[in-house]
Amino acid sequence: MKASDAIIQCLKKENVDMIFGYPGGAVLPLYEALRKSDIKHILIRHEQSAAHSASGYARASTKTGVCIATSGPGATNLITGIATAYMDSIPLVIITGQVKSTAIGKDVFQEADIIGSTEPFTKHNYLIKNAKDIPKVIKEAFYIAATGRPGPVLIDIPVDIQNENIEFDYPKTTNIPGYKPTYEGHNGQIKRALQKLKASKKPLICVGGGIICANAYQELKAFSEKVKIPVVHTLMGIGALPSDSPYYVGMVGSHGHGFSNKVVIESDLLMIIGARVADRATADLKLLNEKKNIIHIDIDPAEVGKNVDTTIPIVGDAKNILNRFIEKCTPLETDEWIKKIHQLKENYIKQDEDTDYINPKKALEFLSNIVDEETILTADVGQNQIWAARNFEIKGDRKFFTSGGLGTMGYSLPAAVGAKLACPDKRVISVVGDGGIQMSLSELGTISENDLNITIILFNNYRLGMVRELQDIHYGKGKNFSISFKKSPDFVKIAEAYGLDSKQVTSNREFESAIKEALESKKGYLLECIVDPNFSTL
Amino acid sequence: MNRHVLSILVENNSGVLSRIAGLFSRRGYNIDSLSVGETENPKISRMTITVNGDDYILEQIQKQLHKLINVIKIVELKPEKSIYRELILVKVRADSKNRATIIETVNIFRGKIIDVSSDTLTIELTGDFEKISAFTELIKPFGIIELVRTGFTGLQRGNVQITD
Ligand SMILES: Cc1ncc(C[n+]2csc(CCOP(=O)(O)OP(=O)(O)O)c2C)c(N)n1
Questions:
Q1: What is the pLDDT, as a whole number, of residue A287?
Q2: Of A164, A206, A343, B98, which is most buried, counting CB atoms within 10 Å of its CB?
Q3: How much is the pLDDT for A370?
Q4: Domain end among A347, A371, A389
Q5: Domain boundaries, chain B
Q6: How far apart, in Å, do the first and last CA atoms of chain A sit?
Q7: Across all residues in chain A, what is the average pLDDT?
């Protein structure tokens, strides 16, 4: 069998039914094999979007996302998308074409060392030198991408090797001596943690994206309810516990809720689950290292103890470990503590700025109340992201996808494409700023071409709003520099030119009727919402 | 700051060394010395890496190295339970007057003269960190023309194996 056909066979064995990609000379044989297969190929408009779309697809489907690019510029265009997925632990398998194996290292046309350049932000990568290694490598790649702490794995395949003939035999198992993720938490450590929990008066759980990776929603809910522990979350942990749970507190960190940060500081025991305790999440938590007991549960041992001193480290899968805790724990007497948290929450007054334009916070709250509980929302980066994170409530089975780790602008639109293709029956909303949308504007074409009725909510403040705000804080008002485009396009016309429906609204009242119309549209709809350039993030 | 010697078993694939070296530079850790070669199993290489750092850094290095898929096993070779060796080759200036002194010094350190010219001697010496530095200090005044060291390598003492 031709190696290129074998690659497709391997992908089929891994249940891949959709690939995001962009062709080129170094992947011609692979595309020819793809043409003959029944795997759906989505021709995106820029390789960076291939990785982002594969990420949205992976997050929505809980499968591994797959994307393909050609050698050199195709491969380097993927880099931001791969790094984005790496920081957020999203499972991807990326196949790049490489120049002929005999030409490697000679700086030939479209040659780039993609193995070297993606080493720091892939979980692992492979350069195929022997066609017969292909099945084994693909098997390993999917295994590595999806197990342990998930992440992107890249396979670089020279074009001549794609054309070779091999005997196709897909391995049933893998044996990688250096890769044995730990799933079961250590018994002794769990016992110690239970003792600390029992003695705690103000226990608190802080969850991150790890709960979502581990698909441990039910377990988290059951644990917090059974033991009566309140739960805060990071940006990546949005949706780990639905906001209508009585134990739900809110988001922590520099863009989190003030009361959530207070609760963290006041707690006497913090159980961190699947969160890497990143700087953004701990910005206002200087007291984290004080005498508080910290139990840190993560599947990646390197995260435990990296940023915060841990009293009890537990390495393993969140789902497994939570189940063990559910089994062993008895309810704690936390009524007082929870009452106090509810008081803190109630005392917190939402700032309600007056604005002649659209109030994005109100808009998102309104949207949150009218869409069903299966809706997927992708947010870009900047003010729009934080407005969405804080005001679009995640109830029921709603999902929230954003680039939390790398903070990559241009993520929302292609991620929404991937999510919609993974879940055609779910409503998908993409929230984005006027800066971010212009980093992946071309994906309007992909939305149109594939008839994806994604609702795009563009908050246009004619600014790189988040940077504007940072400049104001650091250098004083009136010192803004390079934060607005002298000429912004007419977004409504652009959307229409791509074949989408579109409308611009400037007031809250207009928003309410327009968003209903947008949600009813059978095709992609871009709703441009004009926002006061000085409107604040929090 | 303490010196730590790590013995690391890795898959003998191309690219492993760059992955490991890249990890150190990317995370801001310093490699003081590194030596690598195949083991009795040609599919596996052993690297010996000497690093300086406190317990936190050492733990981070070990955990981050463990995340590399090609890294099979890492142990710290504790001084009291291990033997370290390094090989150095030194070319020193040697005239008729000091030649005898140099040869005497080399003998005391159980080194070998492996090349001679009218005005140089080239010496081979193996030993642990202290021996090598003591020797180079003594030989320095004669004039070191060239010096090369392989970097540390080591094993645990007694009947233990890194794979245990
Ligand atoms: C690719 C990339 N470049 C630059 C930045 C730095 N950055 C963070 S937020 C932001 C402003 C985003 O502006 P916009 O998309 O208009 O959203 P807003 O903040 O106005 O909602 C910028 C430039 C980034 N996060 N990503």
A1: 55
A2: A206
A3: 97
A4: A347
A5: 2-76, 82-153
A6: 58
A7: 95
A67-96 residue pLDDT tens:
999 999 999 999 999 999 999 999 999 999
Mean pLDDT of A41-56: 98
Residue A436: predicted pLDDT? 98
The burial class, CB within 10 Å (0-12 / 13-18 / 19+), for A319 is: buried
Could you tell me if A267 and A406 lie in one domain? no
- Structure token digits, residue B92: 């020193």
What is the Cα–Cα distance from A367 to A357, expressed in whole angstroms?
17
> What is the Cα–Cα distance from A296 to A293, expressed in whole angstroms?
10
Q: Give the length of chain A.
A: 538
Query: Where does B82-153 sit in CATH, by number?
Result: 3.30.70.1150
Determine the structural domain holding residue A305 and report its residue range.
187-347
What ipTM was estimated for this complex?
0.90
Radius of gyration of chain A (CA): 24
Which of A154, A182, A306 is the best mutation test for B, with the most CBs of B within 10 A? A306
Structural domain tally of chain A?
3
Q: What is the pLDDT of residues A163-210, one digit of tens each?
A: 999 999 999 999 999 999 999 999 999 999 999 999 999 999 999 999
Residues A341 and A453 in one domain: no
Collapse the DSSP code of A210 into the 3-class scheme (helix H, G, I; strand E, B; otherwise coil) and give the result.
helix
Nearest Cβ partner for A302 among B10, B64, B73:
B64
Candidates B27, B63, B66, B69: best to mutate against A (most CBs of A within 10 A) is B69
Compute the C-alpha angle A397/A400/A403, nearest 5°. Answer: 155
> Other C-beta atoms within 10 Å of A507: how many?
15
Residue A73 has which token pair? 């510029």
Q: What is the CATH number of domain B2-76?
A: 3.30.70.260
Instruction: Give the strand pairing for B31-38 and B44-53.
Output: antiparallel
pLDDT, tens digit, 9 for 90 and up, residues A114-128? 999 999 999 999 999
Q: How many CA atoms lie within 13 A of B2 on its CB side?
A: 12
Contact between A195 and A164 under an 8 Å Cβ cutoff? The reply is no
What does the DSSP assignment read for B25-94?
HHTTPPEEEEEEEE-SSTTEEEEEEEEEE-HHHHHHHHHHHHHSTTEEEEEE--GGGEEEEEEEEEEEE-
A:B CB pairs within 8 Å: 35
Query: For residue range A452-471, what is the model confidence (pLDDT) as tens digits?
Result: 999 999 999 999 999 999 99
Residue A339 confidence class, pLDDT cut points 50, 70, 90: very high
Our answer on whether the CB atom of A360 is closer than 6 Å to any ligand 1 atom is no
Residues of chain B with pLDDT under 70: 1, 164
pLDDT value for A289: 64
Q: What is the DSSP string of A470-497?
A: HHHHHH-TT---S-S-SS---HHHHHHH
Candidates A514, B106, A263, B13; CA nearest to B114 is: B106
Q: How far is the CA of A308 from the centre of ligand 1 (A)?
A: 29
Domain co-membership, A124 together with A212: no
Residues in A 109-128 with any Cβ partner in B closer than 8 A: 115-116, 119-120, 123-124, 127
- Contacts of A158 by beta carbon, 8 Å cutoff, 6+ apart: A26, A97, A98, A99, A100, A101, A104, A128, A129
Does A239 score more than 70 pLDDT?
yes
A 10 A CB-CB count for A323 gives: 17
The residue whose two tokens read 């934080």 is: A386
Contact (CB<8Å) A119/B71 = no
